[in-house]
Amino acid sequence: MTMQMTQPAPVATTPRRLTPGDVAARTTSHNSLRETLSQTMSMAWRATKKMRRNPEQFFDVTIQPLLFTAMFAYLLGGGLSGSVEAYLPLVIPGILAQTALTACMATGVQLREDMEKGVFDRFKSLPMARIAPLAGPMIADLLRYAIASTLTFVTGIAMGYRPGGGVAGVAMAIVLTMIAGWSLAWVFTWVGTLARSAQSVQGISMMIMFPLTFMSNALVPVETLPGWLAAFVKVNPVSYVVTATRDLANDGQLTGHVGWALVACAAVIAVFAPLSVRSYKRHL
Amino acid sequence: MKHIPAVHAEGLVKSFGDFRAVDGVDLHVDQGEIYGVLGPNGAGKTTMLKMLATLLPIDGGRAEIFGVDVRRDPHRTRQLLGVTGQYASVDENLTANENLWLFGRLQGVSSRTSRATAAQLLEQFGLQEAANKPISQFSGGMRRRLDLAASLITRPPLIFLDEPTTGLDPRTRGQMWDTIRELVAGGCTVLLTTQYLDEADQLADRIAVIDRGRKVAEGTPDELKASVGNSTLRLRLTDAADQSEAAEVVRRLLGEDPVLSPESGRMNVALDAADRAADVLISLREAGIGITSVSVDAPTLDEVFLALTGHDTGEGSDPSATADKLQLEVAR
């Protein structure tokens, strides 16, 4: 009770002396870019705190890379490439994209769960940018993509995969996976703002995720596919990412595919970020 | 700048399908006052507050907060108010300290100032010892105080409190009331909703009574209570058949009709002052009318409602109804 260390903060008490009229005159009509960024980072900080206190959120990005890498390599390796070792350079980048996609599916489900809570009403009542509550958690999720892609490579290497791109190639592949994960997460964020419950987000997201991952070149070479399927696989943004990741990890080369993958990611963001913000605003 | 009202709303309307939750409410709150919106559950209080706080779109009418048009300029509006209610609460994944810091940061307060203000508010609200505990360990009263503290981090000039003491025990309620009074002493304007007449009475400078989305009365607490008398005498007659005679006795004595429940022989008499109860009882004895039970109470929200709208709050919170149940149980 003898503690008297906290002096009233000078800045905090100043606004009190302003009349409400002054405060009204000082309001701004919208958030500046700098404010929006700072709010987004604050929301990202909140999401990392939440992750640390709910470690079960890391299950999907730790177990799945181990499970999928081992499972698909042993299951399909012999049939598709003759041996597991020969299949690994093909499948590891595929699984990389697949786990990133599963990880970003969780983004939408968690957003929906979060939006049901009282604190989201407070967020809405604050003069903060409407994109911050959406983009913030997605930035925190970059950590999850990093864990997922690193573990996929570790599992692959343990099984005999020797990436030709070396450390630099693998690092670039991980960075590309994180970028791709962040971009594709906007699709699921959009679903999260649309759907009525977390369960329905899960259901809808599954139906988006399965075609996106399996109807791509992630697990099989495109040449083996029938024409109509190959046509879809070729425009699937996941295919661009997988091809680019293969170039980086296996050859250590910044090929045109990498450029196209980045363009595909940018296109996904350009479409789904505005849709998400609009749909989030409509929830008000 | 005293002439700009804190809240000015005209003909506010909110519909959910065919149901008009708020049906043309005018509201005028002056700077520095505590304005109470009183009404039962489902009367439209929260909906109205949410519209003013930009949490729900306004379907009809217009509203201004310190002269800022709520519908046209939601971003400016949000900078002028803090909202506390069962819906706008705090993050359960964070500690009290982290919550306040985050809400400061989200509103452009620097990290250092935010930390300092958080510490200051936690001390002011008696929460400093729980500053780093998980919110799940907080009691109801602590939660409410933290909710309120979270709205104050930027010291907004207007605070919305949606049922700030619903579900709190009497002692915690009293603490909350003190906190709200301090806010206003510090220059804040408060708009609060409540289901409790005594809360509005204790806190509010002016009260609006809301029923089925409409404002049915407005005035100071004294004006409002005067419309139903300052206290109520509740009687139960030995013989229900005496009721009309008893009513006549009361009418002659006070010049006003009592409220009768014919089937149970119950009678409620509004009194200007509690000591008039003795006069009524004496007159009844002189008239030879027997009484089984007597009590004198402050008017309840139900009675204010009955007086203002002609129907009760529809929540079965009528104390005499409870008394009936008790008697039934005793009879068994």
Automatic annotation (TrEMBL), chain A:
<feature type="transmembrane region" description="Helical">
    <location>
        <begin position="203"/>
        <end position="220"/>
    </location>
</feature>
<keyword id="KW-0812">Transmembrane</keyword>
<keyword id="KW-0813">Transport</keyword>
<dbReference type="GO" id="GO:0046677">
    <property type="term" value="P:response to antibiotic"/>
</dbReference>
<dbReference type="GO" id="GO:0043190">
    <property type="term" value="C:ATP-binding cassette (ABC) transporter complex"/>
</dbReference>
<keyword id="KW-1003">Cell membrane</keyword>
<dbReference type="InterPro" id="IPR047817">
    <property type="entry name" value="ABC2_TM_bact-type"/>
</dbReference>
<keyword id="KW-1133">Transmembrane helix</keyword>
<feature type="transmembrane region" description="Helical">
    <location>
        <begin position="167"/>
        <end position="191"/>
    </location>
</feature>
<comment type="similarity">
    <text>Belongs to the ABC-2 integral membrane protein family.</text>
</comment>
<protein>
    <recommendedName>
        <fullName>Transport permease protein</fullName>
    </recommendedName>
</protein>
<feature type="domain" description="ABC transmembrane type-2">
    <location>
        <begin position="56"/>
        <end position="283"/>
    </location>
</feature>
<dbReference type="Pfam" id="PF01061">
    <property type="entry name" value="ABC2_membrane"/>
</dbReference>
<keyword id="KW-0046">Antibiotic resistance</keyword>
<dbReference type="InterPro" id="IPR051784">
    <property type="entry name" value="Nod_factor_ABC_transporter"/>
</dbReference>
<feature type="transmembrane region" description="Helical">
    <location>
        <begin position="58"/>
        <end position="80"/>
    </location>
</feature>
<feature type="transmembrane region" description="Helical">
    <location>
        <begin position="86"/>
        <end position="109"/>
    </location>
</feature>
<feature type="transmembrane region" description="Helical">
    <location>
        <begin position="258"/>
        <end position="277"/>
    </location>
</feature>
<dbReference type="InterPro" id="IPR000412">
    <property type="entry name" value="ABC_2_transport"/>
</dbReference>
<keyword id="KW-0472">Membrane</keyword>
<feature type="transmembrane region" description="Helical">
    <location>
        <begin position="142"/>
        <end position="161"/>
    </location>
</feature>
<dbReference type="InterPro" id="IPR013525">
    <property type="entry name" value="ABC2_TM"/>
</dbReference>
<feature type="region of interest" description="Disordered">
    <location>
        <begin position="1"/>
        <end position="31"/>
    </location>
</feature>
<dbReference type="GO" id="GO:0140359">
    <property type="term" value="F:ABC-type transporter activity"/>
</dbReference>
